Amino acid sequence: MSDPFFFGYGSLVNRATHDYARAYPATVRGWRRAWRHTRLRKLAYLSAVPDAAGEIDGLIAAVPGHDWAALDARERAYLRHPVAGPVHAEAREVQIYAIAPEHSEPPDIRHPILLSYIDVVMQGYLREYGVAGADRFIATTDGWDAPVLDDRAEPIYPRHQRLTGDERDYVDAQLARLGATILRRA
């Protein structure tokens, strides 16, 4: 029996945040990303949102022995959903995590996006897909009007990563281009 795969579209694209060795760049159809807040967490995160015309890049990785426990704990505010259609030659079964609609709300001033989380996600896309792929990530993600809490100096996100100067400059330039509201930590 072959191992199932998950499709990561946010921090799971950054290989430094997990140890799933059999991982491959992939694209899924029928989904889009959105910045969302859930009552199950204090801060905003990415969620997959069904979208018949949508297509997003990410990273699939095998879940050895169907052992979803650690990944389900990491993604505790999400539900797993099967991905339709072929994603990768090696992956027969692929699951994607999404916040349940009844728990999903837009981010707000009390539930901002962490800059340290954006950094991790963008670093993953830059390393897997280059600048063009990071640009596609931005274009295929809704909710960039959400407030962003600048926690870079003292990261709150538990899997934060140190960015190179070029990676940091790219993230900062894109947030400025998007007109992001940056909140300073008190």
Q: What's the overall geometry?
A: globular
Classification by helices and strands = alpha/beta
Rg over CA atoms, rounded to whole Å, is 16 Å
End-to-end Cα distance, whole Å, is 52 Å
Largest sheet features? 7 strands, mixed
CATH superfamily: Gamma-glutamyl cyclotransferase-like
Tell how many strands the DSSP assignment holds.
10
In CATH terms, what is the architecture?
Answer: Roll
Average per-residue pLDDT, rounded, comes to 94
Low-confidence stretches: none
Can you count the helices? 3
Helix content: 10-25%
Whole-number total of structural domains = 1
SSE order, one letter for each helix or strand: EEEHEEEEHEEHE
Q: What is CATH's topology name? A: Hypothetical upf0131 protein ytfp
Could you tell me the strand content as a percent range? 25-35%
